[in-house]
Amino acid sequence: MTGERTQIPADLQAWIAEVTGAGQIALEQVSGGASRQAWFVDLDAGTDGAQQLFLRYDPREPRPGSAFHSLQVEAAIIAELHRHGVQVPRVIAAHPSAQAVLMDRVAGETWFRLIKDPDEQVRTAQDFIAKLAAMHRIDARELRIAGLGPAGPVADHVRAEIAEMRSRVDRYGRPAPLLGFCIDWLDRNVPDYDGPTVLVQGDTGPGNFMYADGVVTAIVDWELAHFGDPMDDIAWLSLRTVQDTFTDFPARLAEYEALSGHRIDETRVWYYRLFAETRLASMNPGSVDTRASAPAGSPDAGNGLIYGMLHRRLLIEALA
What we know:
alpha+beta, Phosphorylase Kinase, domain 1, Aminoglycoside 3'-phosphotransferase, Chain: A, domain 2, five-stranded antiparallel sheet, two-stranded antiparallel sheet, 9 helices, 9 strands, globular
């Protein structure tokens, strides 16, 4: 690989030393983290011994109106879920201004397809479903997450996000008729649901949890989390199973129903499949244009073309 080695700014390293009390810090960038950098942080914390932590870092400023939370908001979500017993990493500290969060390092793999033993696949998938169901049993009104505000009726949260989608597409400044059609359809067809509001992870499922020996060790990636309908997360899960193995999906849904107390509503799941794909597309309206492609020479050109086509297909299927 060519080019300069990525470095963590000196002031950020000083912050890590300050919040941990470490005398020595070793940093190693690792793959993962999607649009944000991921770092292993090894500390010599003096009398407290060695510590193995994990740093999420984004050198960019948060984009106003983005569907992605700032890392400070994501850290607040994770910390509150940890307080409620959800299987997430413990947050050590969030930087007061830079986009950086320091957490415990959790052992495990990410990609579900790496599990070769069918029995272990089933155990891991069942454990994830159990943990998702447990999270959906939490009364969202009890969650105190400043960046999300109070939990209200599901329809209010859905309409607020539809308005955000419309604003993002308007800021794009070019015609986006397909996205406009999707947004209008979503606005006209908000589900008539008056059940419990839950915290929706968003983009939940294989690839966004860690596992080891048939057990989920941490649910990760909360940058799209929001209050909403439990079927919203089931829709995301169904979309992610298109990209990665996840055992027998109907069996997992039956387990979710039994453990969560939420009945699977296929009509609402399809609504939220379109909701999810439209939300993703609204962040980059050009991505639904078949003529759009990654910049010439981009190392992500191949992945960009593959995932762009995949998500265009998923959006059209959900709309159909």
